[in-house]
Write a structure and sequence with these properties.
With about 450 residues, this protein is of the alpha/beta class. The chain is built from 12 helices and 15 strands.
């Protein structure tokens, strides 16, 4: 479905509250077939996005750019202020979209969840983390879905995108809605479509990445497909919301298992006195049957370190095991400890204990060229080094502050070469980092496996 011309009839200021409602069907509902109730329903917004984080904000901007009236909702006024002040961590293309959206009267930001009833479609994009015991923390998702159910009205499409366990769309949306007398597929439409946003990487635009969607009923899937087709070139409809939920778990579990395997091969190659990246680069020349994954200090971000644990948690209830996944996640979780142990050995080989050692960590974001610290292995590494008595500092052009793991906060060092480190740990290699000074460093632990060979450089 091609994008429609943008409707400019909303009487509201960007970031404010609607001044009046308009009896207008959402642009994307044209030809909705069974969705006749929406044609008669008054909606101020075509789409409301619940959660304006790393997924919700780019999603809202893409939908707005396609000509839709968008409401961005977040319970954090501080987050909304960051967005309004254009300080959000976004790709350059999304920064331009944000600048345009903030001038667009059909784009609104608010913390007022009661506005949910004024949107033809509601998309939930909130975090689904795990706690310190690697148990899923569903608190944020449950609260968001409860609000969606409370304010749901006849004719709406309610779609979940947050990665979670199989059956969550049914448990958190469909059944509570039915208990209210809103039957999915008849009164409202309920679906799941996993997000596919890669923070900090612009290789694929939002519109170019295919979307998977599954409805609680066939009619729900059809309505959700129409919404997604308005801002995405290809939509793949699956038989159910459960299948769509499992699709996301498969995607990120696949990555987790292969990253764990790459880490294992790094250890094997070290033992056999060869460079693992020489092996991986060579294997990557095969045009079929191989996909390159690279080793590192661990896995960060909101997906790979968390999502497989939702599946493992659900399987425990059914008394099922998944040995390959379990071992991969255990290996990933233990990787930062390997960094600390290697740091201890490097210092020991130079007749310096870790207690009192000055250790500089280069790059604390979980991946290059983002300011995202979520689940970053660097945080665990820093906390462990400090617990062992080391004096730790970090330098990161994207992150100005980072927690030290002991209730304090570290400030990024602007001149890491002048800090006088006994050991430098290269954790995240941002594209704008100047690393020539490492040639004169006392000792360097390279967790990226990409620094040139040198007498002072040790691979993880």
């Amino acid at each position: 479905m091609a994008p429609h011309t943008k409707v400019k009839t909303l009487n509201a200021q960007p970031g404010g509250s609607p001044q009046s409602l308009h009896t207008q069907a959402p642009a994307w509902s044209e030809g909705a077939g069974t969705r006749t109730t929406t044609q008669d329903q008054a909606f101020t917004f075509d789409v409301a996005i619940v959660g304006m984080g790393y997924v919700g904000l780019p999603t809202a901007l893409a939908i707005n750019a396609s000509g839709r009236r968008v409401l961005g909702l977040d319970v954090s006024d501080a987050r909304l202020a960051v967005i309004r002040e254009q300080r959000a961590d976004l790709l350059d293309s999304d920064k331009e979209r944000l600048s345009n959206a903030l001038l667009d009267p059909t784009f609104m930001l608010s913390s007022d969840l009661s506005l949910l009833s004024h949107a033809a479609a509601v998309v939930v994009c909130v975090p689904t983390p795990v706690d310190e015991y690697l148990v899923p923390d569903l608190g944020i998702l449950r609260a968001a879905c409860a609000s969606v159910v409370d304010f749901a009205t006849t004719g709406q499409l309610l779609m979940l995108t947050s990665t979670t366990y199989v059956g969550s769309t049914r448990d958190l949306l469909a059944l509570p809605l039915a208990a209210r007398g809103l039957i999915p597929g008849r009164d409202v439409f309920v679906a799941f479509s996993p997000e596919r946003i890669n923070p900090g990487v612009d290789s694929f635009s939002h519109e170019d990445v295919p979307r998977v969607v599954g409805g609680v009923t066939a009619a729900c899937g059809e309505v959700a497909e129409r919404l997604l087709s308005a801002s995405t070139k290809l939509v793949h409809v699956v038989p159910s919301a459960d299948v769509a939920e499992m699709t996301k778990l498969v995607e990120n579990t696949f990555r987790a298992v292969n990253i764990a395997l790459a880490n294992e091969f790094a250890d094997i190659c070290h033992e056999l006195n060869m460079e693992v990246m020489d092996v991986i680069d060579a294997a990557s020349t095969k045009p079929y049957g191989f996909m390159a994954f690279t080793p590192g200090p661990g896995v960060g971000g909101h997906c790979i370190p968390c999502d497989p644990h939702y599946l493992l948690w659900q399987l425990r209830k059914a008394r099922l095991t998944a040995p390959v996944i379990e071992q991969a996640m255990a290996g990933i979780a233990g990787r930062p400890h390997q960094v600390v142990e290697k740091a201890r050995r490097i210092l020991s080989d130079r007749n310096h204990g870790i207690a009192g050692a000055r250790v500089m960590v280069l790059g604390v974001a979980y991946k290059p060229d983002v300011e995202d610290l979520r689940e970053s292995p660097a945080l665990e590494i820093i906390a462990a080094l400090i617990a062992d008595g080391a004096e730790v500092a970090f330098s990161d052009p994207w992150c100005q502050t980072a927690p030290d793991g002991h209730g304090g906060t570290l400030q990024s060092e602007q001149s890491p070469a002048d800090w006088g480190a006994d050991l430098v740990i290269l954790h995240t290699r941002h594209s704008q980092m100047e690393l020539d000074w490492l040639a004169g460093a006392s000792a360097v632990l390279d967790t990226t496996y990409r620094l040139p060979k040198a007498d002072n450089v040790t691979r993880l």
